[in-house]
Predict the 3D structure of the following.
Amino acid sequence: MAYVNGNLALKPKQKPQERHVYRESKRKVIKRKSLPVGEKLLYLFTVIVCVAIASVIIFRYAQIYDMNLQNKRVSTEAQTLNTEIADLKRQVEMLSDPERIRKLAEEQGMVSMLEGGITIKRDVNLSKTATQDRK
């Protein structure tokens, strides 16, 4: 009988079936009462306060974002104005060049005299209005 457990040809002895004895137990089912009205109101008030605080925080972050956006716009506008100012300064330097002014004056009929400064040529015909203004 040593081979009984490992040999499939032999049937093992059947053990008598044990009867399970079930014991009936009585449990008391305790029904919980619903939350009292005061506690419900306290929870509701707590939720309302949390929502209000979250709303204020989100509103402040939106304001900060808007201010940062305006700050970026102003800084880019200031940069464009600075470049425009630099261009205008270069134009002023170019237009105020004495040699350029002298050429323009000579093209319009003015003659340079060293002691007297710039004068009008005598052979240029002046209009009647210009001669009347001198009187």
